[in-house]
Every structure is written in structure tokens, then in C-alpha cells.
Amino acid sequence: SGWRSSGIELSSASDTAAKLFDAYLHQVFGYYENEELGGMEGTGARILEADPHFLPLCVMRAVHGASSPGVSIGQEALLRRLRLVVESAGSGGCQQGQSEQPEKRSSKWELEHCRAALVYASGQRRKAHAIWERILAVYPQDMMAQNFCVFYNLFISDFEGMRDNLLTTLSSLKKSDPYYGYVLAKTGFSFEQTGMLRRAETM
């Protein structure tokens, strides 16, 4: 699959859920709604129909929820799920009484994202950003980590950091890759914001 070719392992056995999550990320990273899939909300619902335990979607929703004021019941449930993933990994498997939980199947990539999301939700956003940067160093084509980094860099107006992270991803992509245009546009924007106008014009 496209995920595997990027070096990213998903714990889900559902190829449909994996493809739909890619479509979900395209909408997030491209700031648009795919009407055929029902927008991001509809795409998310389809993902959960294909795999009710699809962990990357849980991570995305937890981080987005933590960026909004207040804590909803749904957000609390997401964070409990992520804690269980991390605790299960720390104990070498599922917790007692929860042997059927899918968390025991979480990949290393998913586990790191769970940790980052929990740190972010606790208010330690700079620390979460550092984790996302470490993830990008290992998985430069990880568009979920890249999206979180871009969002954080925009929040604190760190356009140099944004530029450097995007360049790492851009250098790992081919022009034919689906995300190339999105990353290129954001990289050009970061050059403009850091005063590198000539470089931005050549993007």
C-alpha cells in the first residue's frame, strides 16, 4: 500500500480504512472538503465503518479536539483510548481484563503519535511538536505529523521551523506523489514568510 511504501506501518487490517484515511488527510492538508465522500466528517464515518478501531483517526481527532476550547465527552473518550494504547505498549501487551483490545496491535509509528497527542492534550504543545519533528525525521512522508507541525508553527509564527520541516518532506517526495503539490505550496509560503522571496518564486 501507499502507507507501506512510505515506511509507515498501520495496525489496521482494513485496506479500505487505510485508503479512506489517506483521503481524509488530503482534505486536512489541502484545506478542502471532498463532497463525494461527505467531507471530512463523512470520510471519518466511512473509516470507522471499515475499521471501528482505526487508531490514526483517533489521534487526529484527539489533537484537533485539544485545539478547541473546553473538553467534550467525546474528547475524553479519545484520550482514554490513547492512554490505553500507551499503557498497553509499556506493559508489553494489553492490560489485565482487556486482552481483546486492539491496542496490542499498535505499530511503533502509531504509538509515537499517541504519545504526542496525549502530550499535546496535556498542554505541553512545544514538547508535542518536538515529538512530531522526531517522527518526521524517521518518516519524512508522514503527512499527519507534517500537518501537526505546520499547525503548531503557524500558531507560534515559527516560519523558519515550518520551512525546515517542509523541506525535509519535500526532498523525500517525487513530483508525481499525491502530496507533492500541497507540500510545495506550503514550502513556498514559508519562504515568503522568512523573507526568501526569490526562492519562493522558483517553487
Compact overview of the structure:
The chain is mainly alpha-helical and 203 residues long. 67% of the residues lie in helices and 0% in strands.
Chart the SSEs and their pairings.
Elements: H1 2-5, H2 15-30, H3 39-50, H4 55-66, H5 73-90, H6 108-121, H7 125-138, H8 143-156, H9 159-172, H10 180-193, H11 197-201
Helix pairs in contact: 2-3, 4-5, 4-6, 5-6, 6-7, 7-8, 8-9, 9-10
Protein architecture, described:
The protein is built from eleven helices and no strands. The two termini are 29 Å apart. The protein has 203 residues and is mainly α. Residues 92-103 have low confidence and may be disordered. The longest helix has 18 residues, at 73-90. 34% of the residues are buried. The protein has helices spanning 2-5, 15-30, 39-50, 55-66, 73-90, 108-121, 125-138, 143-156, 159-172, 180-193, 197-201.
Outline type: globular
Task: Give the strand content.
Answer: under 5%
Helix content: 55-70%
Number of strands: 0
- Determine Rg (CA atoms, Å): 17 Å
| Unreliable sequence segments | 92-103
Distance between the termini: 29 Å
Structural class: mainly alpha
Number of helices: 11
Mean pLDDT over the full residue set: 87
